[in-house]
Write a structure and sequence with these properties.
The protein is mainly alpha-helical. It contains 1 helix and no strands. 0% of the residues are buried.
């Protein structure tokens, strides 16, 4: 039976393999840093957006208060005019 040649022992990885792993590790660290920076930027944008939304809510509340005040004045004026008209018609 012919013997097949044995491959050299693979217990020692080639030197290029070590460099490849080092580069991959460095790339992963860079990606992790980039994601952390991106997450920080997104959180800052969200905080800014929340502040803007609070400002819009305040303006809406102010508009609603003014509208309520105007409605009350309008209703009071209409009731007063109706009373005046009724009083004029009865006399």
């Amino acid at each position: 039976m012919p013997e097949t040649p044995q491959s050299p022992s693979s217990s020692q990885p080639p030197a290029e393999f070590h460099w490849g792993i080092s580069y991959l590790r460095e790339d992963f660290q860079n990606l992790r840093t980039d994601f952390q920076n991106l997450r920080t930027e997104v959180r800052a944008e969200i905080q800014d957006l929340r502040a803007e939304i609070r400002g819009v809510h305040v303006r809406i509340d102010d508009g609603n208060k003014r509208q309520d005040t105007h409605f009350r004045w309008l209703l009071t004026t209409m009731i007063a005019l109706a009373g005046v008209i009724i009083a004029v018609l009865k006399t």
